[in-house]
């Protein structure tokens, strides 16, 4: 992909010497911190732009080796039994509409910085909120200086197309009464999925490994030290006379974030999936189907800690272990051509004929829950509450071992607690829709249809996700629902 006028970022030169490095190193040498000796402090890296300094005008190197085979078979074991199977690879395209250009440097935000010494003196006023003037966009001419003191993102020059491998085997059997049973095994694995990563995260070595709040580490990393970037980056987040110690130990201290889309993500059906379907085809005015899916979807699409080498393997937020859908349509045996009232004439036949009733039931497991960066010292098995004892005020056991005190919550710590748990879930779907339909033939080719439909006809309450913040007073409580109580719809259609 190219941007027509090259108004986009291309990549990131990790080894390039920043234009401000010499001045910053001089400043740093006057007030170094013990964690980074003065002779080891570096200001390296910066954005690159297409068609500048010998760079191509491609935003990334195109991958041209995407092979997408499809294999399938069907074998009739008996006239009523068929075995089917298939395998395929499906690639996701990179580029528009999946990825837009990154135009850092072609627009510029000037940050309001009211003080340079943590409030001892104020340099900005209501009459002159930007005493240093406005920062003007330099475009590609900014080069390695683009967005210094702010966050940057760029294109992975070796980006690869994510793809999915899918395979399936299904056994179908037809029975008397126009019915069919199908049982399928489905496997699915997502490979090289794109996930966002901040390459400028605080290295794990500086994070606390304590199971409790480590105030010493928090104070150490947040302590204000002399800012070696002062006064080189006015109007940015690094314009003050001091800066937090954590800013000087990250890989690219001249930025507040360096983000890239990596291909380290993946997902898979850990135990794969079983899908069953029973279908009663239309006969005697009745048709129905029952579909049931049992599966487990795992993923690795985010990092538990910014310095982790690989994303966290965890139950997906899209996992729904059980899903069942039942549908049915029944034509009432009344009126013209039916078992009852088939000989009726005139108005009586018009009123009695053309009645249908239909229903759809959907049941589904809820989403897996997690508790964020929390302190938990109990047994995970004690957190879930049996379905019959759960209430909106107590969806799970809040006394299982969580640290509830807000002043004792962890920060600047190495996370080891999973971000989601398969055995702890929100409320799932439990919904029944019902419809009554009356079809009346007005004349040749013209039909009147009257419909009365009830969405969530049985008024099943379907709760939203409970509060999962241990320090909240509403921890473990459900405060709203995601489905409407009952919606009744009346409609009239002329079909011609």
Structure write-up:
The protein is mainly beta. Helices cover 5% and strands 36% of the residues. The chain has three helices and 19 strands. The protein has helices at residues 21-30, 215-222, 346-352; strands spanning 12-17, 44-47, 70-78, 81-91, 151-154, 163-175, 179-198, 224-226, 242-244, 257-283, 286-300, 314-315, 322-331, 355-364, 368-369, 421-425, 429-443, 446-455, 487-495. Strands 3, 4, 5, 6, 7, 10, 11, 12, 13, 14, 17, 18 and 19 form a 13-stranded mixed β-sheet that branches. A two-stranded antiparallel ribbon has the order 1-2. A hairpin with a 2-residue loop joins strand 10 and strand 11. The relative contact order is 0.11. The mean pLDDT is 93.
Order of helices and strands: EHEEEEEEHEEEEEEHEEEEEE
Structural class: mainly beta
Q: What is the mean predicted local confidence, pLDDT? A: 93
How would you name the oligomeric state of the polypeptide chains in this document?
Answer: single chain
Summarize the structure.
This protein has 496 residues and is mainly beta. The chain has three helices and 19 strands. The longest helix is centred in the first third of the chain and has 10 residues.
